[in-house]
Amino acid sequence: MYNSEAAGGDQLALFSRRRYSMSPTGRFLVLGSLAAVTLGISLGFALNGAWPLLPFAGIECVALYLAFRWLQRHEDDYEFLTIEDQSLTVESCVGGTVERRSLNRAWAQVVVESQPQGRVRLLLRSHGRDTEVGKLLSNEGKLTAAARIRERLSARALTIKD
Amino acid sequence: MQAVDAHGHDHAHDHAPSGIMRYVTTTNHKDIGTLYLWFSFAMFLVGGAMALTIRAELFQPGLQVVNPDFFNQMTTLHGLIMVFGAIMPAFVGFANWQIPMMIGAPDMAFPRMNNWSFWLLPPAALLLIISMLVPGGSAAAGWTLYPPLTVQHGMGMDLVIFAIHILGMSSIMGSINIITTILNMRAPGMTLMKMPLFVWTWLITAYLLIAVMPVLAGAVTMTLTDRHFGTHFFNAAGGGDPVLFQHIFWFFGHPEVYVIAIPAFGVVSQVLPAFSRKPLFGYTSMVYATASIAILSFLVWAHHMYTVGMPVEAQLYYMFATMLIAVPTGVKVFNWVATMWKGSLSFETPMLFAIGFLFLFTLGGFTCLVLARSPVDAQLHVTYYLVAPVHYVMVAGALFAAFAGVYFWLPKWIGKMYDETLGQWHFWLSMIFFNVTFFVQHFLGLAGMPRRIPDYALQFADFNMISSIGAFGFGLSQLLFLYILLKAIRSGEKAPERPWEGADTLEWTHLPTPAPYHSFETAPTVK
Amino acid sequence: MRLPAILRFFSLALATILPGMAVAAWEMNFQAPKTVLAQDIYDLHTLIMIIIVVIFVGVFGFMFYSIVKHRKSVGHKASHFHENTTVEVIWTVVPFLILVGMAWPATKTLLAMRDTSAPDMTIKATGYQWKWGYEYLDDDIRFYSTLATPRDQIEGAAAKNENYLLEVDNPVVVPVGKKVRVLVTANDVLHAWYVPALAVKQDAVPGFIRDTWFKAEETGVFRGQCAELCGKEHGFMPIVVKVVSEAEYRQWVAEQKAAAGAAAFDPSKTYDKAELMAKGEQIYNTHCVACHQPDGSGMPPTFPAIKGGKITTGPVAKHIDIVVNGSTKNPMMVAWGPQLSALEIAAVVTYQRNALGNKLGTVVQPSEIVAAGN
Q1: Which of A5, B270, B304, C288 is at 20 to 30 A from A113, Cα to Cα?
Q2: What part of A 132-151 touches B (C-beta under 8 Å)?
Q3: pTM score over 0.80
Q4: Which domains, ranges and CATH numbers included, belong to chain B?
């Protein structure tokens, strides 16, 4: 589900972001304690002659670090979708990289694709180019969002016709 | 891939590819949980066949069935396969199924890594089995793999080392996944101290695994370099020390015992309150007791080595530290009994296995208390008195808890009920034959029968025969379990929404039965 | 540690009431202790068992009461208590105190057990794959002790002896009432020297010497086994300790020394083939048969065949070399030079080349072994 939704007239603003139950400080402490224990143990054994434990402890710490870094980088991921008079704009942030695409409202199409694993992909299509949206949403969330966006787009289309 | 429009495709939600590719590529925590559980059951049968080979040879004095070298390979592989192939994956399977549902998360934190950590297991298992077929046979030094005996082995030993590396990688990835899932993906309101105890026990277990897995990897790598690359870590002639391996191995090995036991505590802590229709007694003290057991498990490793000739001061320290573990373990047992006290008990199969666990695990714990006393242990070490408690903890402890868990959650998983009558038969047969097999081994150990011998003196003959009969009975009873599972899957009665009225965790209160393929995509709010 | 009378009564009661009673084959407790230390350990075990049984009955008394009385089927309604700090503190503190109480006697026994000082005599026991070597450091006696149970009893071709698998050719002989310190080490892999009735168990670690001790209170023959997995024949390297009176022990020492003198041979003497073959067969059946098999077929690839083998039918110098110095490629073939005399090696090489299907006619004399550098 989009975390917040604002609609007024034929305009729409949808915002979604990740929700973590652990704070950055918490993550730092967990990673730090795991690494300290692992490295401490292998260092202790290395001092008694069993140095081949060290590389394995090192590899494990790298794996832990990568996992936690992934969490860290994606903590601030968000997606902001707005429908204004003439345009449909998607702004997404994945791992700190912000991407923005504006589509002409009249040409924009909403496509829902079903994938293996029972996953659903939500695409905005215009001029033969697809932009995936709603990556942070559940399947139901995507289907609801698709319906809401369609509703807005067609509402406008009807107005033009008149 | 097909493009569809949203209307009329709400069913896309529960659509999943079928056939084998679904399982090879799956990133769904429920599919992966199922894979882990079936893999573990298959390995349980393989390891069980090895155990029966051992017991067949020990049915009578003399060599009848296998030669001594093959016998040693059997004891070694039985241990490795049961520990790494059967029991650990079984509880990882429970973790995969249950943790996301219990904390209100849609899946594990790293679903693709989850897929890899499972698919590393079958090749490792294959390596263990192939190692028997290479010239010279597999490792035959016991699951503890003590050098210098392992340095004498043929290439089967290298395959075993490689398999252990792969299994270790799988465990580490699995643990990272479990820790991040539990800490990072809890539903709003699901604070740490509201988590079901099963989730807590897995959090602690994953910490243990992360701490000790590099230790095991290092130990077997040093064996490998001693074998092939001219190092002398464990060779006194080159300045090494064979006992160093034992220190490293048991630094891994003792926490490993708890890696197996602690998730079992977790399962039992879910099942007992559900069938007592009463909340778990002393939740907070349960959490602290489990954490203290885990911490203490790092401080007692050398109690497996009382006879190597440590300085007497060290021996005293390990004796006292070991006895200390009895305190938090005692707290847990008392809490479980207090949970049942004044409840409204009913005795369906999961409850029977949980009570069986409680009774026999405590019995095994008590014999460990006997062994903690260094002078007594010096007498009983490496006798059958060691074989008995190990199996009270691993079989009556971990395995019975796993059975309790399967019967308990099966309705939630597949939406069908198992056959209650057959389930009760399974429990009583397992319970009786287990004790016939292992209780008498205490007497063998006291009388001085060493473990890992293919043939024995005549005064041990009677109890060995009883034990072998029990082992075959126990083994056959597990085929009944397979039948019960298949029957439930194929033609089980439809499970009611809440088959167990006392079960009150999120998967029972917030999800339909059977649990949908994707659950909690929108986080529930826990009050 | 001496147990109070009441505990002794209980332990006696326990030992008699339990089924199996006096039947040796249904032994349900430690072997009858034959040293003070073994008695201490026996009592310590009984004490712990009593405490455990009391706690066990207490805890599970509650559980079974609950199972009977608090069932849903008898209409019991569940209470909803789930905490009680007082009770929780009690059942944390009380077990702790019990454990401290139990630690005290265990500590005393442990200290006594590890006190190897001031021995009356010292024996060095060395574990080999798969036999024990003994060396009496005070009397300069040394011998090997191998399994005496014939192969066909193990394979079921003959009825089994009373002491099946627990009998050796040369037992350790010690005097009664003397503190015997045992230095334990190993030659190849880990072993452990374990005699239950004397309450000794000590791992044998190659390259390191550990020690233990015992002081037998009465005469008799006490049997034990290797207790650390040491390979294929781990179950077949027993330990037999014969405790005799001081006078008998002196006599035994004298006999051993005389025998050692008689066994000394003249290296230049030429032995005839029949003599070597007889001796060789005996050596083969003691030392070689476990791996290379009674018919010499071996268990390739780890244990190559003697019968038509590459080495046993090849040049004799290479054959002698591998027996004396062991194999460089296969760690399972150890150097027999340090363990066997020149005569014994000559005999066994002769036997291997003229029996077990080989008919090379080679006769190797002890002098050749000596000349080859042994």
Answers
A1: A5
A2: 138-141, 143, 146-147, 150
A3: yes
A4: 22-509 (1.20.210.10)
